[in-house]
Structures are given as C-alpha cells and as structure tokens.
Amino acid sequence: MIQRIFLTLKEILSQRFISVIVFFSIIVAVFCVGAFQIVGNSFNHYIQEKFATTIPPNFIKVTPKPSGGIGLIQLKKGEGSVLSDAYLAKIQNLPGVKEIHPYMSVQVPIQAIIDLGKLFPLLNIRYRTDLVCIGAPYSMIKSDIQGKDYQKKWLNWKVGSPLPILVPNVLLDAYNQGMADANGLPKISKDLQKMLIGAHAQIFFGQSSFKTIPGFMVETGELVGFTENVPSLALVIPLGAARFYNGKFRGQDSDKEYIYCFVEVKDHDAVLTVSDKVKSWGFIVETEKSLSLEIQSLRNNVNMVIWALQWVILGMSIIAIAFSTVIATLNRTEYYRILRVLGASKAFITFTIVIKYALIGWLGATLGMFLIGNLIDEIAKVAKFSGFELKLITDKGMITQYILGGTLIPVVSTVPALLKLYFKGLNRD
Prior knowledge:
Radius of gyration: 37 Å
Strand content: 15-25%
Number of strands: 15
Number of domains: 2
Structural class: alpha+beta
Number of helices: 15
C-alpha cells in the first residue's frame, strides 16, 4: 500500500514543466470563461432591471374582436369576441403576467343634468345631455384622482353615495374646441379645472333621450379629476359601479364582460410570449412588440458574442492541455512499461495519471475562481460604463460547476494518450 502511494506521488511530481503549463492553462481558462459569464450575467441584469424598466411599462392591450351580425340581428359570438372574467383568469395564469387592468362599458342608457349656473354664476344655463360611461380600474387612474379623500371615495363607492367621476382630457378638448365656441360657453382652462374638482351633476342610469328603463336610478356624480389614461369620449367611473349598473339593468353576465383590458407583464420577453398566446385565442392584441423584439435581439446578440468568446478560450485551452498531456504521458511510456514488468497493473498506472491531472485541474480551477472573486472588483473599477455595474455572481452552483469543469478538462485531455498506452504501450513485450 505504501509503495502504491509512493508511486502515485512520484507520478504527480513528474514532468513538472508540463504540469505547470497545464496548471496555468486551467487558471486562465477558468478565470476568463468565468469572468465573461459574470459580464454576461451583469449585462442581462442591467437589461432586465434597469434598461428595460426605463422604457414605458410593459403593457398589452387586449380587445375582443367585433361579433358578426346582420343589421340588428346578432349572430352567435365566436371565440375572441367576448372578454370575460373566465378569459381574464386564463390570461392571469400565463407565465410572465404581472397584473390585469380591465375596463367595462356601462351598457345602459345614461343621461346627465349639468347646472352651469353653479359653476358660472353669470350663466343661468342648465342642460341635459346623453352620456357614455366606462368603468376603469383604480390601479390605472389613481394618480388622476385629486386628493386622498376622493381616492377613498373611488375605492369605497357604494350605491346611494356620491358617484366619483373622471373626465378624460379627450372629452375636455372636444368641449373646448367644439361645444364651447358653438354655444357661447366659456372654455375650461387648466386653472379652471382645479376649481371644478368637487362639482356635482345629476346622472340618470337607465334613462336617455331615446329610452327609459323602468326603475332607472338617479345618482349624484362628483367630479374628482381629469385623466389622460382613458382616451375616450366617455365619463370614467369606478369599475365596481359599472359592474353594478350592468348587472342591475342588463343582467346576462354583462357585469362580467369587458370592452378591453391592459395586461401588465414582467419583462419584454413576456410581451412576446403573452401577446402571441392571447392572440391565438382570437383577441385583438396591441403592443409595442417591435421594441421588445429589439431588446430581446440586443440581449441575445451580446450573449452570443460572450458565449463565442467563452468557447474560443475554452477550446484553445483544451487543445493546449491535450497536447501537453499527450506529450507528457507518451514520453514516460518506457517508465510505465518498467512498472508493468515489476507487476503494476494497467488500471493502477491509469489511475496514477488520472489522479495527477485531476489534482492539477482542481487546484487550477480553485485558484481561477479565487482570482475572480478578488480581482473582478478591481476590473469593474477600471472598466467603468455609464449606468452599467459589474457585479460578482457568488452563486455556489456556478463555483461548483467551474471547479468541476476545470478538474475534468485535463482528465478528459489525457484520454487519447491513455487509450494508446492501455492498448499498446503497456503490453509486456
């Protein structure tokens, strides 16, 4: 046993020049390949956490396609023509979906009585007009509601309490550019908008100039702000209110069907996968898909360059190590034959060679990872890029992977020489 240990140590300490070449080749390979991976991971982190998030949020607009019909006769609604709660649940369960923001049209006759005399004392004008209302999720318009008190009213609205309403800027522009001049009414400026917050109007749900539904409801609408987030010629009310009025006057699941929704996704990759999946269900999908494709292409191209550089360095290292191990092993053929004559088995000789290069590989890979941990911060200080931060990835899995790979590379590189020795060079002749 002691003799075997002695012969193993003698093999490890032999051919020191070649061993040093293999040792430093492993250090360089592990350090360079590992450093490139850290740069790649850092770049992907930057794209994901900073660059992609500086671009407007990742939203997909999903709209049901128009259902077919002839005149007033509506045919059976096909796939993708109804955006229901069931489909919202399916979308929410897709990988990469962060949140869904649905919008609902109030599908009942609506009319409002606006008393301009309360707003403009010099004008004794009180007029009635038909309206369209859209229920919007609080998450999308909360920044447009003026003040926390009005935000609470929006969130906690109940039947019988004042109905908070938002006026889209599109509707305000239509009034200023058309109705105001045509009827000799004052235009509403930015300063006047602030004065109008809290103004009331009577809103009739279930009644219009065309139709009246028995049991129609009269609500007091309270203006809580103006919004850019709903580009529509319709008043914006809480989504819960839209569900209530649809359910009361329409029924037939009208309180569970939406005119469109915005799907907020986690990243630009999800923009592509989610939009394609939703489109396959028959819905109309609108998104800045081209931007997501460019970001994905940029990341893939950089990762491809890094991957290519890693394999070039790894390939050159493997070739250098393979030549070194073949030369070192075959130069000791006579020594191995003497061991065979003295009774050493082929398996033992092979074992001593494998142990030698496995040990060299392990030491080189460990030192390479140690250098990465101690020098990468210095490299990051020298190679500064605006907004880009190089971070050391201290993942245990990566460390284990590189040490194992560095150990196996010289062992695998000895295979050609070992095969020649095993089948020819170690015969007792």
